[in-house]
Amino acid sequence: MTKNVLFLTASFAALFAIGCSGDDGDKGTGDTGGGATDGDDDDDDTGPVILDEFDDATLGGGVNCSGTTVDFEFDFLGESSGGLLDAADSANASNWNDWHSLLASGVAADGSYTLLSATGITTGAAPQDWADGVSTVFTCDAHYNDPAVMTYIARAYDINGAFVDCVAWGDDPAGMLAGDYDEFNPMVDTGELTGCRTAAAAK
User: Do 122 and 137 meet the contact criterion of CB atoms below 8 Å apart?
Assistant: First the structure.
């Protein structure tokens, strides 16, 4: 009888150990997944990037138009001093382009991400009359409601102002990076575009 008690006790101990190690594994997996979406410390080893190049929905979601204004907002994973967004209608004959400084705000308490944004920009300016962070050629009807015509390049700078990352997406990222859509406005610091990552989302 003593042997049976010892056997049962050992069996329960083994089952308890398996159950506990399974729970720990689940928590570890959950934390890793949460880190990937929240931008917590688990992301630190991936290096500073604006957005995952495969996360096309998030790239497109960074552009929001309402009435006569447009907002550009992107998360930078890490601490940033700011960024720059190049925008162009790469599908229509006009091929206008402009750019807007992205201001850094909303840094998470642990420094895991920074919101880079240019908001309340007045839409519908003439191609030669737009102003950085104030007005844009972009319109809600022609460009937001038909996002497939647009191409964007977002850049980010680290906390010291040094260029650290670039991602291009939309209708023709390769053409935008090659300077095919700067007829009206030469792009700023084109040397930063070397090696820029691309995503396929036409947003």
Answer: no
